[in-house]
Amino acid sequence: MNSSWLQFLLKHIYPQNCLLCGADADPKSRFCDPCYSSLPFNHHACPRCALPLPADATAETRCGACLNKRLPYASCHTALRYEPPSNHLIAQLKFRHQLHLTAPLARLIIDRLGELDSLPDLLLPVPLHQQRMRERGFNQAQELGRVLAKHYGIPLDGRLVKRIRETKAQSDLSEPLRRNNLRHAFRVHGSLQGSRVVIVDDVVTTGSTIHEMSKTLKRSGAAEISVWAVARSVADR
Hints:
By secondary structure, this protein is of the alpha/beta class. It has two domains: 1-38, no CATH class; 42-232, 3-Layer(aba) Sandwich (Rossmann fold), CATH 3.40.50. Helices cover 35% and strands 15% of the residues. It has nine helices and six strands, in the order αααβααβααβαββαβ. It has helices at 3-12, 33-38, 64-68, 86-95, 102-113, 130-136, 140-152, 175-182, 208-219; strands at 75-81, 122-125, 161-163, 186-188, 196-204, 224-232. A four-stranded parallel beta sheet has the order 1-6-5-2, with helices on both faces.
């Protein structure tokens, strides 16, 4: 069966509604065309930390912080800015157990990345502490990682990195407290010697979580670290 017939069947036999407005949606993206076009895509962003930049920024333009700071990860790519309606969709996934949102949100990351010339060796979701995992019942970063791993054919390991210390919710803390909150919070159970790895997460806010996790991965031998996430906060760090 060719792809055009498959798309016809999906649309007319198994119709799906837009995740935002309820109108008929593209079965692949799960958004209607107007809603998809209105999403806050993070097209103009710092290539190191994904902080949104002015529209006249080039693909090589770094934000001021990344020009003056050495980061333990090489790059960060996010599909959206963390503002309406992307913040609503992510909150629905994380706190309302709307797991059907996983695939369309991961698809936005894939659309942002495109087809990659060089693939990393491993995808590593940001882990939850076991107590929070019991409360929530799932790790949204790992669920996003499953979709990405299947699409690109990259192994996903949700057990290699553990969050060994229960920390306060990052959203409740100021930026300086976030870094202290996460200090020594991660441990790698195994070797990453020479590996090129990608950290998968839902939202990059100040970057404290991926910064601390990247330092831990570096100490375990990771040669290169990148970050893929759904959204990036628009606030300065």
